[in-house]
Design a protein that fits this description.
The chain has about 190 residues and is mainly beta. Helices cover about 10% and strands about 35% of the residues. The chain contains three helices and 15 strands. Strands 1-4-5-6-7-8-9 form a seven-stranded mixed beta sheet, with helices on one face.
């Protein structure tokens, strides 16, 4: 059976595991297909399904284990996300955007048109900039979507509106951080 922790359906690309029990600092990069389970009681089990988009990006379907509702992070295009939802037997309950670049939000319009209105989260400064965004988040804001507890971290650097989302024991960083370094600094600074 599945123990506590995160279950990865197709490998692990572009997000990090957090250190239990405080989630302060990065423990290690997610570079294995199934990371070791966390301490019992720390995190609720969840599924993460990486979705290849464009030529070099990933979107992520994230759902509480056993739930048929998911959220998607960085939907750069709708087609692969819709296919993954169908394949996984999931329905989309929310869209989370890490920043305003087209290769992270390009699928928002088509997803909302295909599936109907839903919460679309991004940094509060991006309201009116990111297609379909109807929820603004700020640093350390905690909220729920698709049955998951989420904490937003404002991490300006790659862009001024960059947000990382901590969900259970993973952090989804967009283009702010990679397993081997960080993304380019287009608008912010390294400070």
């Amino acid at each position: 059976g599945r123990g506590p922790g995160v279950h990865f359906d197709r490998g692990c690309h572009g997000f990090e595991r957090m250190s239990p029990p405080t989630a302060r600092g990065l423990k290690r990069a997610c570079n294995s297909a199934l990371p070791a389970p966390l301490e019992p009681g720390y995190a609720k089990p969840m599924r993460v399904v990486p979705i290849a988009c464009l030529s070099d990006n990933y979107a992520y379907l994230v759902s509480a284990d056993g739930s048929d509702e998911a959220l998607v992070i960085d939907a750069s295009e709708a087609g692969p996300v819709l296919s993954a939802l169908s394949h996984e037997g999931l329905r989309l309950g929310a869209i989370l955007c890490t920043h305003h670049h087209w290769d992270h939000v390009g699928g928002n319009d088509a997803l909302v048109q295909a599936l109907g209105p839903m919460p679309v989260f991004a940094h509060e400064s991006s309201l009116g900039v990111i297609a379909q965004q109807n929820r603004g988040v700020s640093h350390e804001l905690r909220f729920q979507a698709a049955g998951l507890e989420i904490r937003a971290l404002h991490v300006p650097g790659h862009t001024l509106d960059a947000i990382s989302y901590v969900i259970e024991d993973c952090v989804f960083t967009g283009d702010t951080m990679f397993a081997a370094g960080c993304g380019r600094l287009f608008e912010g600074t390294a400070e």
